[in-house]
Amino acid sequence: MMADDEIERLDPETEYLMSKRRAGNEWEMFKENVRPLKRGRNVNLLNTALNAHNHNRLKKSLLDNRRRLIEAIDEYKGDDPLLPWLECIKWVQESFPPGGDCSGLVVIYEQCVRTFWHSERYKDDLRYLKVWLEYADNCVDADVIYGFLDANGIGRTHSTFYISYALYMESKNKIKAANEIFDLGISRNAQPMAKLKDAYRKFLARSMRRPKVTEQDSTEKQLPVRSFGTVLANGENRVRSSLSELSTKNLKPEKTGEAAFTIYKDSTATDDDCPQQPDVSKRELHSLHPLGPRAERNKENNAIPGKWTAYQIPQQPGIRTVGASASACIPVFVDEDCDDRREVKTGGCKSSSLVNRREADQDMKRETELLRKKPLRNFPQNSLPR
Amino acid sequence: MAARTVAKDIITLRGSAAIVSEFFGYAANSILYNRGVYPEESFAKVKKYGLPMLLTQDEGVKSFIADLTAQLSQWLEAGKLQRIVLVIMSKATGEVLERWNFSIETDSEVVEKGVSREKSDKEIMREIQAIMRQIASSITYLPCLDETCVFDVLAYTDKDVAVPFTWVESDPKLIANPQMVKLHSFDTKIHKVDTLVSYKNDEWEEQ
């Protein structure tokens, strides 16, 4: 298209290019440390924040600033009590670009949503809904949150609610449930409808491309239980002993939470590698004929990778060398600035319950961890949907 | 030996126009890929500017961009192109969400007198590479485009340019009160290209 008569009038972009205002390049220098935000970021704030996190002195002022904003929530006297919360959240998001536990964001989200959950006034407030959805994004068990919102009628007029809910269900492979949520949103005439329908169309297109097996939510449970040990060589036996202890702390606990992880081994390999075990290879050959459904064959490609945080390699006392036998405890190194931070916080907190809560980073990290797993743990029991 | 080195660093209007229009083609592809305007699968990787770049394999988009760059290089050779803007809009509402603005300053002496300038390809490539890197990392501050989007290209030309028949007059499709980020520039010594991206200010009330 052409817009050739617009040159004389100065639009904001031309004005900006002509002015010598320039933003710093920190956003590019430290791009690995920035968590993309749904709403985008203000580059100047981003640059300042990235700079601050690299200088201890500036970092302190950042923490002071956060404390002030939290105090402002308590001191707010206006007629929109949600507002100071939003300002605080937005500021923290912009000022702690990597997100993470240190920002305290999860704790702030939780306190915000808990403050207003019973308030009729904010039930249909898009801003309030967005705090909830951002909280859900940060939690492992977002199921509970969406169920709570639905049961309490929070955000039910907004298509964003249904889109987030359905996409979350889709990510958990609950395709049918996701479909129902889209339907529900459309039948409730959530706004803006165009956006909801657009998301629904995309979802349907994805569903078409998806292989059949994943459409049944229960497929995973129907998979036959594997037995181990028949083809493993002696040296690999230690894997077996620890299998039962495994549980993966994963962002998708539904898939990996309870099941111990499983190791697959190509049964054909034993054919060539271990000719001295004719009986085994024979059995393997026979069992090869029914290859099983596609999902069964490809499972090592489809498994969702998770952190092995809970995996402990069993100690073998016999292997230990003499040097390592001394049970000297290893001193935990504490970063200088981490120490400072704790002082700042304990020194500064007074009125706000929120500040008191987070007297130490340790507390906040623990709380964040707990909330991630059980987002509604601080809510009264009777408010939860049954 | 010396003579050859010198010859390589000479840049003509025509060569410069080719570099700039080619740059725009790659930049447009990169934006469409990085901003998810078209599905990831419809792009293929090539090596360009010392970087892995992605090019659309969608025939429609491909020929659109090919026609576009051909037209641009014509205008650039005539020194009549002032600005080119890639606009990303919501498909559902038509609202403008993002504008990638490439402003071009042409050395008028080169156009009028047909003289040439000196700058090595290598140096120009390095400058372009920096811009491409910035486009790829712009995700750090740009809002997520979570709806189906379409794009359009606006060309700001001199007034005496006749509108080619595949083009139509357009309003400027500006964003009210935008956030703006200036990216790196590159300069062929004949065309200087400034890059800027503007996007919607974030609001809690935003649907």
Please, could you describe this protein's structure?
Chain A: GO terms for molecular function: protein kinase activity. The complex is a heterodimer of chains A (386) and B (207). With 386 residues, chain A is mostly helical. Chain A starts with 11 loop residues before the first helix and ends in a 13-residue tail after the last helix. Chain A has helices at residues 12-18, 26-29, 43-52, 56-75, 82-95, 105-116, 126-137, 142-151, 159-171, 175-187, 193-209, 219-222, 237-243, 253-256, 267-273, 278-288, 294-297, 299-302, 336-348, 353-357, 361-373. In chain A, α4 packs antiparallel against α5 (82-95), α6 (105-116) packs across α7 and α6 crosses α21 (361-373). Among the domains of chain A are: 18-99, Serine Threonine Protein Phosphatase 5, Tetratricopeptide repeat; 246-311, no CATH class. Mean pLDDT of chain A is 72; it is low at 213-259, 269-278, 319-326 and 340-353. With 207 residues, chain B is of the alpha+beta class. Chain B has a single domain (2-199), classed as Cell Cycle, Spindle Assembly Checkpoint Protein, Chain A (2-Layer Sandwich). In chain B, 35% of the residues lie in helices and 31% in strands. Chain B is built from five helices and nine strands; from the N terminus they run αβαββαββαβαβββ. Chain B has helices at 2-9, 13-34, 59-77, 108-113, 121-137; strands at residues 10-11, 43-48, 51-56, 81-90, 96-106, 117-118, 149-157, 179-187, 191-199. In chain B, the strands form three sheets. Chain B has a five-stranded antiparallel β-sheet. In chain B, strands 1-6 form a two-stranded antiparallel sheet. A two-stranded antiparallel sheet of chain B has the order 2-3. In chain B, α2 packs antiparallel against α3 and α2 packs parallel to α5. Chain B is globular. The mean pLDDT of chain B is 90. The interface between A and B is large, with 45 and 55 residues.
